[in-house]
Amino acid sequence: MSGEVYREYYRAEDKERYFMGKLKKGRTKVNPETQEIQYIPSRELSYEQLVEQDWQFAVSDDSVEDRAVRADMLEKLQDVLQSLSAEEMALLNELFYLEKTEREVAGLYAVSQNTIHYRKNRILDELKKNDGKITIFLSIRMRF
Hints:
- It is built from seven helices and two strands; from the N terminus they run αββαααααα.
- The protein is mostly helical.
- It has a two-stranded antiparallel ribbon.
């Protein structure tokens, strides 16, 4: 894993410790005129209280580990894609990112659908030979 992932993890931990200390501790305040001691409770609210106040919470199913693995896969994907020619990149872009059918792409290039299918499979086979990183390519494509 990269240093960036570790820094982000520890930054989040530090931030949580800071806020937990600020929110969980009640404090006392002395009125200088009357010398009265006043206790100020913590600002921490329970989950139930927040829900009652209609607070909205972001849904995050991704753990830090999942984000780190995804970042690593994206780096590897970029390395693999840089080895492709401009024509191969354009074909993959049309098929996978723009989600066009082989028939639609064939119409753009004025070739048969079988030709596009053959070219796509040839490119994917080349990527498989590149240390098996094609599985990374396909798994990332399926996630988005």
